[in-house]
Amino acid sequence: MIRACEKASKIIIRDFGEIENLQVSKKGPEDFVTKTDKRVEEILIDELSKNRKKYSFITEETGLIMNDNKDILWIIDPIDGTTNFMHGIPHFAISLALQRDEEIISGIIFDPIKNELFYAEKDNGSYFNNNRVRVSKKTIASAQGTSERNFVNGFGRPLGRVAFYPLADGIIAQQHRRRFNKSF
Length: 184
Known about the structure:
It is a single chain. The protein is of the alpha+beta class. The chain folds into 2 domains: 2-134, 2-Layer Sandwich (Fructose-1,6-Bisphosphatase, Chain A, domain 1), CATH 3.30.540.10; 137-184, no CATH class. It has helices at residues 2-16, 35-51, 82-86, 161-177; strands at 24-28, 31-34, 55-59, 63-65, 69-80, 93-100, 103-111, 116-121, 125-128, 131-133, 140-141, 147-148, 151-152, 158-159. The chain has an 8-stranded mixed β-sheet. It has a two-stranded antiparallel ribbon with strand order 1-2. The two termini are 32 Å apart. Residues 146-164 and 175-184 have low confidence and may be disordered.
């Protein structure tokens, strides 16, 4: 999985550097696909099939590809965040998962721009760039004296639910107001 992502990421990095030449088509309302999405998906399918020829696939661009083994399938989103990619915003990733008997048993999120790799495997834990990550058991006491997990901003300050949702709404509203010079 990791090698497949690394190989596919070379296409993404190359095309992100030449965003003005990107070929885009519309799949549906507010839903776009780039030539890069399609090429990355092809590479991922080819690479993953080398060792697991009989596994099936469900992909964002191609859809369902049934092979001999219908109980094990790869789930692929070649560029998770295509809109950001199309607009030159460096916040997108390759997303892969492996499902067996309708249960996700392994997954990867790879950000090729930041070279950040998050992966997890059932019964083997979660990792960020080969360093084990765990869910924190720390809690922050709320104003009411109860304890809850909170969102934390980049400065280490907690953002409780009440503070977070307006912040998220503001960010989303700002993105809707922001328009780019190019139209797709």
